[in-house]
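ok here's the first one, seq then struct tokens
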Amino acid sequence: MRRWVVPVTTGVLLAATGAAADPIRLVTGTWAPFTGREQPGGGPVTRLVRTAYERAGHEVKVVYRPWKRAEQAVRRGTTEAAFPYTRNGARQERYVYSDPIFTLPIVPMTRAGDAGRITSLADMRGLHTCAPQGWSLGIAKLDRMAADGTIHVQRTRAYAQCLKLLDRGRIDFLVGEPPRLRDQVKRVLGDMAPVHLGDVVLSRSSFHLIFDKTDPNVTEAVARANAAIATLDGSTEYRSRVEEKP
């Protein structure tokens, strides 16, 4: 019996492999209805930020921390950026801001019986409002009016206390972004019946990612974020995700 010996050439294929890039770590806190661990998908703003980075080809990992710890995480370099933050003087000294992720109108809110009482900032002269300790009123001119005594600001430990003061007639108005005001009123007062959201837009809030100014890679990180945010331009979900009513 003849045996056929078939020579076998064994080739060794070398594949160049590179380690996959680590996900970009971002941090946010609880700010209903926009962000929060308990919100579906982390809340509409978290979903929006994740979508932006993914469209730009980046994987992200979002972690949730109390707001002070979120800023500490950025300064310590354990996360690349925190969101969503508005601009203020003290914060701008320590952080670099991305382009706006989204913007929202700021409107007045009064008791239902005072509907139409406030149509401009001038109508607030001599009136009383409320904000938690350390909070801005959200409009630079309104903060100046508070500083010079044109309006009176009662400070509380939590925003829920401000809503209760409004409901009891102890203050005259609050201001804020409609989705946030609706969410907070429903949580604290049960429904919107006791209050009136004004139709007048007093100003607009823009919300950003913030980056540590001292990070040697901050320029690249901000450019990466801005390129991601730019992918949302013209998208129907850009506005609907953050303006959806809770």
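and now the second one, same deal
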Amino acid sequence: MSDNSGEPLSVIIKSYLDKTHDFIDQNPRAIRNSFYIVGGAGIALLLKSIHVGTFFRHGKDIPKRFISKGVKLQGRVKEIDLDGIVYVQHIPILDLRLPWLKKPRTELLPMTLAFVDLTPNCKKWLEQNLLDTHIWFKVFRREKDKDQLQAALFHQKFLVWRTCINEKLIKEGVCKVSNLSDEEMKMLTEKQVELLHRMVALERTADKKGRGIWKEEKPPFKESVKAMLYKSMYAPVVLGKYLYKTAKDRLRR
């Protein structure tokens, strides 16, 4: 064994660099493969951390950070029950299963529409517009006693335009905005509060224009004005008939 203690440091470093260079020259394939392995492992860890290939079977499977950060997930609406609960089959970004191991997925995520007070006409509207369609959804929270998700649903039109189903139901007067308690309001994020404010504004507009349920509960402004004018025009006629009949009855007596 040679003793390098008397040699200068620069000579020792140069010797190690030469040996390293010789090893790389003699084993280029091993070095290249090692980079591929390290890079592949890094990509695999990244994909696993963001759940690119994960299929969410239950609401509890969705990571909490997805809910807090408002991550949008995709799925297909498979069923809508009598209470207006939407059952969605989650679709992962990438299906990493081996072709010969793929099995049909039947698990569905039950979802309620956030900030929406459902009406009897809601189920019919959802069936006509959402059943068996591809949607995106953003989970707001999980119900503790049930495996239900409170979410905002988005229906994509064309390539980039996505319509919020929660807002559309309010805009068309199909449903009303639900009343939230003070505790529920405190749990909302800034983005969720913005959505709630937009829905309240849409409800006011639907009320003024007499759309959907608002048309049944209260006539639109134009119709109410027409009714008022009609009554004011014919009020003298009705009063005259009443006075004439009263006078006629008195004369007979």
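notes on #2: The domain at 59-216 is CATH 2.40.50.90 (OB fold (Dihydrolipoamide Acetyltransferase, E2P)). The first strand starts at residue 72 and ends at 80.
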